[in-house]
Amino acid sequence: SLTLVSNHWLMAWMGLEINTLAIIPMMTYPNNMRNTESAIKYFLMQATASMIIMFAIIYNAWMTNQWTLFQVSNEWATMFMTLALAMKLGLAPFHFWVPEVTQGIPLTSGMILLTWQKIAPTSILYQISPSLNMNLLILLAVSSTLLGGWGGLNQTHLRKILAYSSITHMGWMTVIVLINPSLTILNLLIYIAATMAIFLCLNLTSTTKINALSNLWNKSAPMTITLMIILLSLGGLPPLTGFMPKWLILQELIIYNNITTAMLLAFSALLNLFFYMRIIYTSTLTMFPSNNSSKFQWFHSSPKPTSLIPSMTIIS
Q1: What is the pLDDT of residue 168?
Q2: Residue 63: which of 53, 52, 78 has the closest Cα?
Q3: What integer is the mean pLDDT of 268-294?
Q4: How far apart are CA 209 and CA 193, in angstroms?
């Protein structure tokens, strides 16, 4: 919230640092080597990005004699600021830390990492959007959508798939931030709602791999249906909610004659939809009258609440 309401660069930078340091204890609980390794990777990447942001802030203040957040008039300061925010958001080619960190931490911490932690850098990107370089934004966005879709194709861990999905969605938000920043906020809100709903579904069923979804229908049929609807919405399949921001972004790009960019983004969305459909196919293997191709697992009634299912369905 400090980053969202501040109009001074120093206060915004402090908000980013507090945002980074606050999640480190959550990532290291419960304390084991995988969680600690992921937390160190995350801290090193975020610290490097914060150092570049501070360099850009000081350089911009030196050249323009002002510390206002909305005025980044120096070209080099804008470029360094954009690259540093790309590192914080996990945009390609700085995306390698996102799948590794997400895979090494629990589902709850992964949910916070892929949702709440994106708000502060996106807010700064939104506020300095008039000063950004369009060519650099398109390069970061298109590479993020293509690599995010390509990287998720051969994954079997659900957390890594959602991490690559996050990279793709960050690319969609970045490409439109200069043309229509309001669409960036709309896309971010829908992405956060859908991603949190998926993580809650996985947390309720204690599922982390695709092959474990083959028994999900036996555990909870409403949960399976909810998960399928949310995945299709996140992939941008009409007429679900997730299709709306993608449609509006493609429309704005075509209006501004960025037809090649719009085509690349549309084709990259098919890659994401493909591995979402693979998850859905695995989840529906046990539906009647198909035979279950996996071994049944004995399980007891879960004490976790299922009252969230209707609200998750409404989100999608």
Answers
A1: 95
A2: 78
A3: 76
A4: 22
